[in-house]
Amino acid sequence: MSRRRALPAIVAAGLALTLGLAACSAGGDEGGGGGDSTTGTTGEPQAGGTLTFAASQSPGCLDPQQLAQAITMTVGRQITDSLTVQDPETGEIKPWLASEWEASADGTAFTFTLIEGATFSDGAPVNAEAVKANFDGIVELGARSLLGSTYLDGLVSTEVVDPQTVTFTFDEPNAQFLQATASITLGLLSPATLALTPEERCAGDLIGSGPFVLSDYVQDESITLTKREGYDWPNALAEHTGDAYLDTVVLQLITEPAVRTGSLQSGQVQGIQDVQPVDQDLFDGGEFSLLTQANPGIVTGFVPNTQRPAMADPAVRDALQVAINRQETVDTLYNDRYLPATSVLAGTTPGYLDLTAELAYDPETAIELLDGAGWVAGADGIRVKDGEPLTLSLLGGGPESALVQQQLAAVGIDLQIRQVDAAQYVEIQSSGDYDLAGYNLTRADPDVLKAIFSTEYTNVPRLEANPLDDTLAEMSVTLDTDARNELAGQAQQTIIGEGYNIPLVEQFQVFAFSSDVQGITLEASTRLSFYDTWLEN
């Protein structure tokens, strides 16, 4: 199994597409509290019924081991189980398919003891052989597994110790691996599914061990999940045991926000995602409830392509950092549920370092930086150097892009926003024909930085090898929490100080449900879980 793959540009494009373009809202609660991660319950759970939920995007691939789209991960969480689960409040790793685990003193080997009796929905046992097939298969997927390839970097062997015991051995200490075992990407699929082609799996031919089965998929229209009979191995955070309460979950794919809002108000659906700030108060109480949680990981922002002439200039990147008024962006576009970004990492991420001072709005300094670097204001107000205007093309980006465009124009930077469809986004980012790309990535571990900013991985900013690589690599192998957080802080200082990321706002998930929907929860990565959900008659 090869180590430290330098993934191709198309992989970086995929990450940006699924976690940048798809994000419709951003932010966080005061102090990084994370919001309300469950709808709670008001009575005795009742079995039966169909929950119809309006999702905001259509999946490019339904296989959670391959793609990291929000809708893919939502489906994946219902049909697959993971070895462990992460508590969204404390970050603690707790049992699921693994009842216990042990790490070697040097952090290179991890042994998991599996629970007895768990099966995939085709009847195959969830045993050590199945775990080995899944994890080895993710490594073999390589670049197709956008996140898994980083989670399992350095895996040199997967040993079946006995039918219910498996040991993973890495070539170096792996500080992030235990948290990764709680991820949906490392959720388990049946060996029969693993035998299929990646394309067949993307099309929805998936069998997992979870409480629901994927029973129907109509591309760009709907995804239907049905309750699995006989499920009895929920994770340690679940509120009940046995089968899921709901008979069916139908995910309607509705990309237009106003249509989603109207569908919930009219009762055509019972839940929606990506509730726009202007609509959130409509669902905050009474016949509806809001479910909110701040995303950990890399915040919503722009990643510069440092191979482009203007973005290769450190003064331009530095000017971008201070020419953007992040608080104005939140005040204008969002509400008091949201927060401006204060680092490349969200405040809810372990190892987060507050870099508010470095990101303070200071247009005068931006002007001085650009003047000093030879970017002279032209007759139209746009700066010019060596005959070339300071025009930057932004690929994708969220609703804040238009306001940022105005803020940058005030210091002589011409930001051109290029909104394209999913296929075009992948093609353009792969080609490198852009200056900035809209981006964010969710993970409750600072190792998320390595996936994006290390030259040995996706390397979204297209950097040459540099000292940041060493900091990120050392963070991955450092087992002491305090020392690891120190390295995470150093990495954040470098990324912000060098302008490798231009953060804007913290990403924030906002869902709305009718009052008859009870027991909805969000896991640590802000993905919905319908296992404990029930409908009040």
Automatic annotation (TrEMBL):
Spell out the InterPro entries in the cross-references: Peptide/Ni-bd (IPR030678), SBP_5 (IPR039424), SBP_5_dom (IPR000914)
Signal listed as a keyword: yes
User: What superkingdom heads the lineage?
Assistant: Bacteria
- The Gly residues compositionally biased stretches are 28-37
Q: Where is the signal peptide?
A: 1-28
Ranges of residues in domain Solute-binding protein family: 92-447
* Region described as Disordered: spans on this chain: 28-51
Q: Which keywords does this Swiss-Prot/TrEMBL entry list?
A: Signal
The family database entries (CDD domains) matched by this protein are listed as:
PBP2_NikA_DppA_OppA_like_15
- Alphabetical list of PROSITE patterns matching this protein: PROKAR_LIPOPROTEIN (PS51257)
Q: Which residues form a coiled coil?
A: none
Family matches, as Pfam families: SBP_bac_5 (PF00496)
User: Keyword DNA damage: yes or no?
Assistant: no
Please give the PANTHER family that the UniProt record associates with this protein.
Answer: PERIPLASMIC BINDING COMPONENT OF ABC TRANSPORTER
This chain's protein is named: ABC transporter substrate-binding protein
